[in-house]
Amino acid sequence: MTSPIIGQSRQIVEIRDLIKNVADTCLNILITGETGVGKGVVASSLHEASPRKSRPLVTVNCAALPETLLESELYGYSKGAFTGAMKTRRGKFQMADKGVLFLDEIGDMPISLQSKILHVLQTGLFSPLGSDQEIRSDVWLIAATNQDLEAKIEKREFRADLFYRLNIIKIEIPPLRERRDDIPLLVDHYISQYLSQYPAREIELPDSKVLDKLMQFPWPGNIRQLQNIIKKQLVVNDWNAVIEELAHDAASHESHSGASKDNTNVVGADRRNSSGASFDDKSPSTERDGTGAGRERRQGRRKSDESVRKTREGSKRSDAEERRDWKERRDAEELSDCTLPQKATKGKVYHGRRAGDVKPRRRKGDIPGDSILNEFLVDGDSLDSLNREFSLGNIKKKVISRVESEVIQYVLDKTAWNRSKASKILKVSYKTLLTKITELNLEPPD
């Protein structure tokens, strides 16, 4: 089975190479990264590439269970260990024996349980709740977190000795905004995946303009947010609506970021939000204070923000600039409404010419340069030059094909290649339109 990690960016290639190098060692691994970047996918890839792939991969979300339940979930319990323990139950360490135990969100594990994890890592032994019997478990431990464990160590919220045990090999997954070139590949992958799961559904393939907008968005929710957007397409199948939703999300995050800045110091004034997304400095919540003191605070904060931004690396753009540019590009490239040519209001129209228009004179027997007959002539314009395919039926097919190509190309261009919208305007099914596009070799403009 190939790696499910999608992407060709330098960071992703390095992660895939690292997985190949460490998978056969079964050394403890710590996976770090923001929420939604795919830490579970990396853990699955490690398991699949290891000699333990025939054994189970057991996952425990340390943030999802309270302390007492998490302990029994990890180590199991014997019959009568507590009220309601009617029978002995195996824990995850036993279930993962000779396999892989993936501890997700380990930064949320209570410090009182961390010592027991450390003991298992050191000795390979543990005791179920309510039992004095020690059980040996051979597991490859992979942990993941979106938190700064070293900062938690300083706050005495995480054991330093456990951190060093886990952090033998560290795999840091970059956020999606730092690997934008992978977005088209991810979009194609998830569209194919969801269409195979829901074959009765259709998803419009995004055109180049939509992909540009998707690549410009900062994706605070990372790959998980991208997945949700594509899943939603199974229902709405309208990329215009997706772009509008992303713009709304950007504005909401921007407003939230602006409101929170009132309680931050100067250094924090130019920071990113918890998921790494960046937003404009202006926010309605911070501009409502009409008092002189409020204005002075805002002016002072803006000056401080500017000085902080100027001291950052020259190659890095400020958060506000990135977000503002994204909005400007989105507004400038709004998909135009489709408007078909209006019928002439005066006079009849024949092949694009109003009655009464002066036609250019031509000599008898001449064939116009744009005539369909030219496609059946081998050399010259005599009857002897007509090829074998010449017939009234084939001419009719050629004419229909040429007209279809012209009309479909026109509607697709006017809808910015929104195939779903174009199929409704042309009054054909979505699948029929896709077939015609292929048959007529139609392509979007550069």
From TrEMBL:
Positions in coiled-coil regions: none
GO molecular function, one term: ATP binding
Key word Nucleotide-binding present: yes
Keyword Nucleotide-binding: yes
The entry's keywords: ATP-binding, Nucleotide-binding, Transcription, Transcription regulation
Protein name: Sigma-54 factor interaction domain-containing protein
Region Disordered, residue ranges: 250-366
Domain Sigma-54 factor interaction residues, every copy: 5-235
Record field: compositional bias (Polar residues): 257-266
Pfam families: AAA_lid_14, HTH_8, Sigma54_activat
SUPFAM superfamilies in the cross-refs: Homeodomain-like (SSF46689), P-loop containing nucleoside triphosphate hydrolases (SSF52540)
Biased composition (Basic and acidic residues): 269-333
One Gene Ontology term from the biological process aspect of the record: regulation of DNA-templated transcription
